[in-house]
Design a protein that fits this description.
With about 350 residues, this protein is α/β, with parallel strands linked by helices. Helices cover about 30% and strands about 20% of the residues.
């Protein structure tokens, strides 16, 4: 791990957003590693729970969310709703959510392979969290990006799905019945059976307030699903500030596993389950950082794998390593299912 610098005076007073500790932190300096903007940012590492927090948040965060930011770049109507794709996508998505058969290897025809793996992983986490009312389950996707997941759930027959994101360029109603709104969670009305944060929770400026808000908008028996990266794994231990999922400065707080537990308890909730779903991205993305290759560079595995400095065999081996780490609970990302803690009668 790259050597961390000693915390300066302002960081010494920094309170960990996860556990509220004021223990003396060490500080990591991380470079913006998606677009190659040549900007460095400092993160405190909590001495108690190990969570990471951006020390100084840029005034204009919109600068770091351009139109080609990968969560908003793909129109779901074109990717999953195109002629010749929509019906097949419905079968694939339904098989993951409702258990109708197996996901076929031919499913890579729906969207590019990497996106398909991500979508299937997300759908599996939703199934584990539970669609308590089946197709009538009310679902809210916080930080929905382009609305791919909102579209997919609607395609599988879920009737009431809303996606919100303050960085949406346009509000729209999807052909599957889902809604995309330019909103913050604090502006949402009504109650939901499942509220989801798919790699959006780490982008929130006040995660405790957001978790409390989500818990307060649940129906009885409802749950919150949070998928996000965590430094409690081998990747951060190995790469430190070069770990790809630090993603400075967009990731404001990156929670350790202990940090999630403490935050949940403080918010009046309990972690019901944790399932690791990391991929080889933790390795090739971080290795690219060490080589000075931004994620959206033409030499990146993300953009043009054939021009990346890794062989197919190496990429496949990293995927195998990721699967092994997941089974050990040492992956660099996971899905947490959180529910309100029952109160004593």
């Amino acid at each position: 791990m790259p050597e961390a610098r000693a915390a300066h005076a302002s960081a010494a007073a920094h309170r960990c957003p996860a556990c509220l500790s004021t223990s003396k932190d060490r500080v990591l300096t991380a470079r913006e590693n998606m677009f190659g903007l040549q900007a460095d940012f400092e993160y405190s590492v909590c001495a108690d729970c190990g969570s990471l927090a951006l020390i100084a948040v840029p005034e204009d965060m919109a600068t770091y969310y351009p139109k080609n930011y990968y969560s908003v770049e793909l129109d779901p109507e074109k990717a999953l709703g195109a002629q010749g794709v929509r019906q097949f996508a419905r079968v694939v998505i339904g098989s993951v959510l409702w258990g109708r058969g197996l996901v076929s290897g031919a499913a890579t025809a729906v969207v590019p392979r990497r996106r398909l793996r991500t979508l299937v992983s997300v759908l599996r986490s939703i199934r584990r969290a539970g669609l308590v009312n089946g197709r009538q389950t009310r679902v809210l996707d916080v930080g929905c990006g382009s609305g791919m997941l909102v579209f997919a759930l609607g395609l599988a027959g879920v009737k009431d799905v809303t996606g919100i994101d303050p960085f949406l360029s346009d509000e729209r109603d999807l052909s599957t019945g889902g809604r995309l709104r330019r909103q913050d969670l604090s502006e949402v009305e009504g109650r939901y059976d499942l509220i989801m944060f798919h790699h959006s929770f780490e982008h929130l400026p006040d995660p405790e307030a957001s978790l409390r808000a989500a818990l307060g908008r649940l129906t009885p028996g409802g749950r919150v699903l949070i998928r996000m990266p965590t430094p409690s794994g081998q990747a951060f231990e190995t790469y430190g500030a070069a770990w790809m999922q630090l993603e400075a400065p967009r990731h404001l707080v990156v929670f350790s596993r202990a940090g999630v537990d403490r935050l949940s308890e403080r918010a009046g909730a309990t972690v019901v389950s944790v399932d690791d779903d990391s991929t080889g991205f933790q390795f090739w993305g971080s290795e690219q950082n060490l080589r000075g290759i931004p994620l959206m560079d033409r030499r990146s595995v993300m953009v043009k794998p054939r021009d990346a400095p890794f062989s197919r065999a190496q990429l496949q081996d990293w995927e195998k390593q990721a699967a092994a780490l997941n089974s050990e609970g040492r992956g660099d990302q996971a899905a947490w299912v959180v529910a309100p803690t029952p109160t004593s009668p």
